[in-house]
Amino acid sequence: MTDAAAFADCRNCLCQASRSAARGVTAVFDRHLRPHGLRITQFTILANLIIRGATPVTTLAEALGADRTTLTRNLALLVHNGWIQTHADENDARTHLVSATPNGRAVAQDALPAWRKAQAAVAAALGGADVAALRRLANATLT
């Protein structure tokens, strides 16, 4: 039989805390973006494509910190909505590029003020030191 006391430290699990915090932050952004028909995952993809231009799927997945399978599912909905397009790279037909369509750019542009409000709300809730810590954590290489 396992002794529950041996697992007492698990109440302070950093992984669980970070996942819970991420769900809360995601909910704030989703709430602000909902009137524009977007979720934060979709807005982030569109924003990255607007910033980067046509991008290979693998490069986009790395930039977003997402695995290719999850990103491919998210891209399918954006293609269905007409917000992005995919096409083969002229120099390498094995490489698929993704880019925002004019409609996708317009949707993202319309939602940008809502994203800024969500960004400000989360930053205010966290405070400057915690925002800096979150950015350090996001850029850290953990092994």
Summarize the structure in words:
Strands 1-3-2 form a three-stranded antiparallel sheet. The protein is mostly helical and 143 residues long. It has a domain at 39-136: Arc Repressor Mutant, subunit A (Orthogonal Bundle), CATH 1.10.10. The chain has helices at 14-33, 40-52, 57-64, 68-80, 102-126, 128-139; strands spanning 55-56, 84-89, 92-100. The chain has six helices and three strands.
Please outline the helices and strands.
Blueprint: H1 14-33, H2 40-52, E1 55-56, H3 57-64, H4 68-80, E2 84-89, E3 92-100, H5 102-126, H6 128-139
Antiparallel strand pairs: 1-3, 2-3
Helix pairs in contact: 1-5, 2-5
CATH superfamily of one domain: Winged helix-like DNA-binding domain superfamily/Winged helix DNA-binding domain
* Order of the strands making up the biggest sheet: 1-3-2
CATH architecture of one domain: Orthogonal Bundle
Derived from helix and strand composition plus strand pairing, the structural class reads mainly alpha
Alpha-carbon Rg, integer: 18 Å
Output the number of helix runs: 6
Low-confidence stretches: none
Strand fraction equals: 5-15%
Secondary structure: helix percent: 55-70%
CATH class of one domain: Mainly Alpha
CATH topology label of one domain: Arc Repressor Mutant, subunit A
One letter per element, helices H and strands E, the order comes to: HHEHHEEHH
Determine the N-to-C terminus distance.
32 Å
**How is the biggest beta sheet arranged?**
3 strands, antiparallel
Mean of residue pLDDT?
92
Number of strands: 3
Overall geometric form: globular
